[in-house]
Every structure is written in structure tokens, then in C-alpha cells.
Amino acid sequence: MSGTVVLDVNETLLDLDALRPFFARHLHDPGVLRQWFAEQILYSGTLTLTGGYTDFATLAVATLRMVAQTHGVTLSEQAVDEFRSALSRLPAHEDVVPALSLLRDAGLRVVALTNSAAPAARAGLATAGILDFFTDVVSVDAVRRAKPAPEVYAHAARHLGARPRELRLVACHTWDVIGALACGWSAALVARPGNAPLPLGVQPDIVAPDLVEVARQIVAADG
């Protein structure tokens, strides 16, 4: 049984679709958002595997410029500043507040674990109006490795003073779920649009299309 629920932040809690107008305006296709985020995850993992590290926000701008170049677009500094501002002001998905309320009211400890720097993550959660739900915000900055590196989940367990089996990750990214399961955690996958479980290897015991249903199942299993 897991007494602590550890939630991913970007896309799991905060809605990346709020960036679609930026991509429509500057790259002429809102769908390029998905390409940018895929490259962000690819290169955060690449840097981790090769012994490098760059904070999420800095890498986000670098991958944005790279993706823009592949589309024949050179972004102005004003456009990049607009992107930084939009990235720092992402709203929460509509299901986040009711889901976090369910978890908190069930007496579960609710924590955030993010690839973003801790100050940026706290500011983003505060701007979205959900920071007060969390007893802690844990960042990969402490180990300078990005999820799903095992060092991240080990650090989170040490920081929280918990055994792996006492922790449950909640994320909408299968790669994050795989990382947590490999480290002995429980996991739940929020199968938001564009996300699905990988039918290979160990599976999360909870998979649902929205965070409220995930929270209900967690309360039934762990509460």
C-alpha cells in the first residue's frame, strides 16, 4: 500500500495545450507543440544518458529553436520571451483540483516530482492555483538527472523518508511510469489524449483517462 502520491507536473497537472496559440502564431501550426514536447523529452533523456544536464526551462528554449529551424523559422527574441512567459503560466487541467481534493481528503500525502527546477515548479503550481495541495515539491535539479533516470526516484524516496513501496507515481507519460515501476514504486497512468500504456513489461495497476478517476482508484487502493 502506498501512503504518498507523487504527481508529475508538466502535462499531468499543467495543460500544455495552452501553448498551442504560440505555435499557431509563430510556427503556423498548433500541432508543432507535440513535436516540441517530444524533442524536449528526447533531449532531456539524451543529456542524462551522456552525463550532461540542463534545466528544463533552458532546454525548452533550445529545443524550441531547434524545432523552429526544422520548419524554416527563425524565432525573434521577442517570440522566445513570449514562449518563456507562456510556459511559466500554464493553467491546470480542469480535473486537477477535484482530483487533488479527493487525494488530500483521503489523508494521503500529496507531493510533486518534476523535471523543472524547484523554484519554477513552485511558481507554476502557484500560478495555476494548486500549490497549496502539495506538502512538498521535489525537483530533478538536486541530482542533475532527468526522469526517468533511477537516481531521480531514489532521491525522491530519500527526500520523502519513504521506502519505494510506500510511494505511488501519478503521471500521464508512460516513460515516467516505467521509471517509477523499475524503482519499486507503484504507479498510475493518466491516459490523457495522446498518451497510452506501452503493452510491454510491468504495467501500472491503475490506468484511467482522467485524473479524477485515477484519484478515485488510488483512494480505493491506498487510502
From TrEMBL:
UniProt-listed InterPro entries: 2-HAD (IPR006328), HAD-like_sf (IPR036412), HAD-SF_hydro_IA (IPR006439), HAD_sf (IPR023214), PGP-like_dom2 (IPR023198), S-2-haloacid_dehalogenase (IPR051540)
Name under which the protein is recorded: Haloacid dehalogenase type II
MF annotations from Gene Ontology: hydrolase activity, acting on acid halide bonds, in C-halide compounds
Matching SUPFAM superfamilies: HAD-like
Keyword terms, alphabetized: Hydrolase
Presence of keyword Calcium: no
Protein family per UniProt: Belongs to the HAD-like hydrolase superfamily. S-2-haloalkanoic acid dehalogenase family.
Statement: the UniProt record of this protein carries the keyword Hydrolase: yes
Cited NCBIfam families: HAD-SF-IA-v2 (TIGR01493), HAD_type_II (TIGR01428)
